[in-house]
Amino acid sequence: MNYYAKIFDGSISDLSRFGDTFPVADDQKNRVMHARLAFGDNMLMFSDNMPGATIDFGNGISLSIGLTDEQQARSIFGQLAEGGKVTMPMEKQFWGALFGMVQDKYGINWMINCEEVHG
Asked: Which end of the chain has less Cβ packing within 10 Å, N or C?
């Protein structure tokens, strides 16, 4: 979570661990049951797998972030790409937005979309 808090320039709150709420094995107590990462007007929520659940690495999910600041979008995209891989470079798209896709170092797929702001 600290990795993402740095990338999104956000703050973590409402952190609770499985060991705070349920009787779990000692090696499961510090796993995150719930936490929030707030950045700007946005929020991501996190949870580790339930204690005892199998963890499989896979590509079954993509997270999408919609932004309106090109510099912020490029910064977030670049930081997520460090240690990961770019699957679609950040480029202007036919719908008028700057868009790119990246898989971060933890295997999470991200779609970064930056709409043009007209004002």
From this structure: C
Distance in angstroms (rounded) separating the CA atoms of residues 18 and 30: 7
- Residue 32's contacts (CB-CB under 8 Å, 6 or more residues apart) are 1, 15, 16, 17, 18, 46, 47, 48
pTM of the complete model: 0.79
C-alpha gyration radius of the chain = 16
Interior/surface letters 23-41, b for 16+ CB within 10 angstroms, e for the rest: ebeeebeeeebebebbbee
Whether the CB-CB separation of 14 and 38 falls below 8 Å is answered with no
Residue 19 CB contacts under 8 Å (≥ 6 apart), including other chains: 28, 29, 30, 31
As given in the structure block, the two tokens for residue 17 are 């661990």
In this structure, what are the phi and psi dihedrals at residue 29, rounded to the nearest 5 degrees? Answer: -60, -35
pLDDT bracket for residue 48 (50, 70, 90): confident
